Amino acid sequence: MTVPEAGRVYEVFARGRQRDALTHVGSVRAPDDGLARAYARTTYDEEPWAEMLAVPRDAVIPVLRPGGA
Amino acid sequence: MPAATADQRLAAAVAAVKVDLGWMYTDWSVRAPTLESSTAVTAMAQEEVGHARVLGGLVPDGVEGEGIPCLRQPATSWPELIGVVAPVELALAELTRRLAGCRHELLRSRARKMAEEERFHELFVEGWCGLLGADASEVTAAFADGLRRSQDETAAWVEHLDALSAEGAILDAGALVEHCLPRALAMGREARA
């Protein structure tokens, strides 16, 4: 039985305190935003984060790239 | 030993279900379909057992809570697991939100953090129910089989909690049935059609 689950990659950012900068903590693959939230929280819950955000990787706008392209 | 009070029996019943959910998730912690879903059920197992321990502190020794029998039977596939746990998790998410605002001080204080964590369990089952209910043939059939096993028993359990809640003046009579059951019973209606 093949269970469906593909989706896209979400980059996960978090900060420990409100005054801290957001830090990239990792990524998860999820089929929708709801599961991305669940997966981000259960995968990266090793610290008591004040805030955690997930951003679809394909929504990130490149500004500078390695090599200058 | 004096008979357990309604609030103690309610805490015992929720703790019993959370222990059983913890075991079910543990059973799938290294064989879920993806790394993310394995990690999720592992974390959820830890949270369920943690919640059970917190609630257990409100229960006198020897008091057994009423559980949900289908949670004590192993799920033979991932879709069946999701079908079995989904109604329970949706009911628990709403239950903990209600308890976080209830009239019983000890239950209220313990339910707040549980409600925050249950929100992510809710997101998890909502996401998976959407995936499995929309799939074809054998996956949806296994999911629907799990739902069939769980929904009636979850409804009976919530009605039991509702009676205890009313008896202990924890929440208004009917509040749990009114708020915890509609989504739990509607889940997967398309899959079962």
Summarize it:
By secondary structure, chain A is an alpha+beta fold.
Describe the structure.
The complex is a heterodimer of chains A (69) and B (193). By secondary structure, chain A is an alpha+beta fold. Chain A contains one helix and three strands; from the N terminus they run ββαβ. Chain A is flat. Chain B is an all-alpha fold. Chain B contains seven helices and no strands. Chain B has helices at 6-27, 35-56, 78-99, 105-133, 137-167, 175-186, 189-192. In chain B, α1 (6-27) packs antiparallel against α5 and α5 runs antiparallel to α6. Chain B is globular and about 50 Å long. Chain A binds chain B through residues 1-5, 28-32, 34-35, 37-39, 41-43, 45, and chain B through 33-34, 36-37, 39-40, 42-44, 77-79, 120-121, 123-124, 126-128, 130-132, 134-135, 138-139, 142.
Topology, element by element:
The complex is a heterodimer of chains A (69) and B (193).
Chain A (H helix, E strand, L loop, with lengths): L7 E8 L7 E8 L2 H11 L7 E6 L13
Antiparallel strand pairs in A: 1-2, 1-3
Chain B lengths: L5 H22 L7 H22 L21 H22 L5 H29 L3 H31 L7 H12 L2 H4 L1
Helix pairs in contact in B: 1-2, 1-5, 2-4, 3-4, 3-5, 3-6, 5-6
